[in-house]
Amino acid sequence: MEYIREHPIVILKRISRFTILLLIPALRAIFFSGGSIDNWVTGVWIDFLALLFILLLATISWEFHLYCLDKGGIYQFTGICFIKKTFIPIEKITQISFESPWYLKIFGARCVRIETPAGSKFSPDLKIVLNKKAKLKFFNEIVNKDENHENIKVKFLSLVGLALFSANGITGVIFLATLISQSGKIIGSSLEKAVVTNVTQTVNSLAFGIPPVATTISIFIAIGFAFSFALNLLRYGKFSISRFSNKLNIENGNLVGRWFYLISVDKINFIAIKQTLITKLLGLYTVNINVIGYGKEKNEKSVLIPICRKTKALISLRRLLPEFKFSALQYKPKRKNFRRFLLLPLVAIFMLVVLLLIGIWFFPNLSSLIVFCFVMLFILDIALLVIKIFEYFHTGVCYKNGIFTVNYTRRLSFYRVCFSKQKLVKATIRQNVFQKHAGCCTVILHTLDEKRSCHVIPNIELDDAKKFL
After folding, report:
1. Beta bridge pairs of residue 273
2. 97, 141, 169, 260 — which has fewest CB within 10 A?
3. Could you give phi then psi for residue 383, rounded to 5 degrees?
4. 383 and 317 Cβ atoms separated by less than 8 Å
């Protein structure tokens, strides 16, 4: 076997394990220098030895971490006196990702993440930092590049759509608030005050009779949304997908780094076509896949095909994953259950009107702010009502040739999910008092994955549910 070590840059990371030893120079400076600079300088060699000892321990830890890859799997050896050997079989690996963020790329390093069903849902089973040559060896051992394969390059407009519709204004606001709060330390308090003053003046000029607080919140959310959009566009630039035999290769990233994912097709739990209300009205689709490890890291999305038209999405799916075939729905909610979908938004609108009247009655001085909040929430309620109307026509189930096709709505988004019978681990039929009287039920299908995903199909006829289960 040919053993390899991680990139030497890992030594800096391993130093953090021994930060407790930094107490030595800190305690010496506090208790033994007597407040004198001369006493501290004369004993600086002790601090130097402590730092040197920390670096030595980190280097020894790096030296005795060895890895090996062959056709059978990945081996890891750790320890000096007591050696621990870990083996991960190739056939059990669900995903291998190669990450090249800018701070590793400048050192010629690549981060490799190994995922299996046995690992934690918060961290990878194995995380290694390698040089470029070792990274290529990992890839070549698993995939034969000479095999015939499908390759799809995503257009820039699709990536813009993905960045736009997945942008999170709150994330951008947090980033912007941190930037402003720390600007005093970075650029000086006077310039920080100038930034805050300019923001205040801008808010006052754009208010147009709207309460300044509401205007400030709107501006910050808009700027935060723009930041989030820019970060997403950099993260998913140059997106491409390839199919090598039983492996799916996804690549993305631009400027901030490059990410490469190698996914076992037989380990994919389900495919989900996702639409928000806006993308549904525009006829746009985003295709996600659920596989252990993919989409686990911070700011990482489990995207297979970014935003595109229905025809393009289905053609790409047939080329990349012909094993997953969506079918027309067989079982849908009956017309008599239509009112059940409208109950929640109609009650919300009624309660909102009641709260508006109560607020104006008891707090007349804040009537302008209360009316503004009412209008914003009323728009959201109307959007919820429209979503529920669409949900009635969207919801349904089909079971054909061992493949489930499930349509449902979750968190104000529309999902069309496809998975095989082998990935179904639990099925539940749930009825409340009102559903029992109407002869309908809610079907909950649990699929195999580390996030314990469940697909909830409401208001399906009980007799229909018994047929496909």
Report:
1. 287, 416
2. 141
3. -60, -40
4. no
